[in-house]
Amino acid sequence: MSEPLFAPDSTHAEVRCWQCGHEVTVKPNGLPAGISGAEFERRARCQKCGTGWPHVKVFPVTRSKWGM
Ligand SMILES: [Zn+2]
């Protein structure tokens, strides 16, 4: 049900605010171990405007996680 945000081979994720466009990079070691993608999105808040539910893109993009 809740897939981990980071796969074992993930290096980082780009997190972008859909509201103001503020973008940050997060690394697996900067987050609670094994945090799920859904949990991260639920907790994340834009540091600039405070908007939640950012767009998250995990790198490297080696497999289909977001329907592409
Ligand atoms: Zn924002």
What this model shows, in words?
This protein is α+β, with helices and mostly antiparallel strands. The chain has a domain at 12-55: Rubrerythrin, domain 2, CATH 2.20.28. Helices cover 10% and strands 21% of the residues. The chain has one helix spanning 37-43; strands at residues 12-16, 23-26, 55-59. A three-stranded antiparallel β-sheet has the order 2-1-3, with no helix packed on it. The longest helix has 7 residues, at 37-43. It starts with 11 loop residues before the first strand and ends in a 9-residue tail after the last strand. The mean pLDDT is 90. The chain binds zinc ion. Zinc ion is lined by residues 17, 19-20, 22, 46, 48-49, 51.
Briefly characterize the structure:
The protein has 68 residues and is of the alpha+beta class.
Give the secondary structure arrangement, pairings included.
Blueprint: E1 12-16, E2 23-26, H1 37-43, E3 55-59
Antiparallel strand pairs: 1-2, 1-3
Bound molecules: zinc ion.
Report the biggest beta sheet as strand number plus sense, adding barrel if it closes. Answer: 3 strands, antiparallel
CA-atom Rg in angstroms = 12 Å
* SS-derived structural category: alpha+beta
Q: Provide a count of the helices.
A: 1
CATH topology type of one domain: Rubrerythrin, domain 2
Instruction: Give me the side-by-side strand order of the main sheet.
Output: 2-1-3
Note the quaternary state here.
single chain
Shape: globular
Structure keywords:
68 residues; alpha+beta; Rubrerythrin, domain 2; 3-stranded antiparallel sheet; binds zinc ion
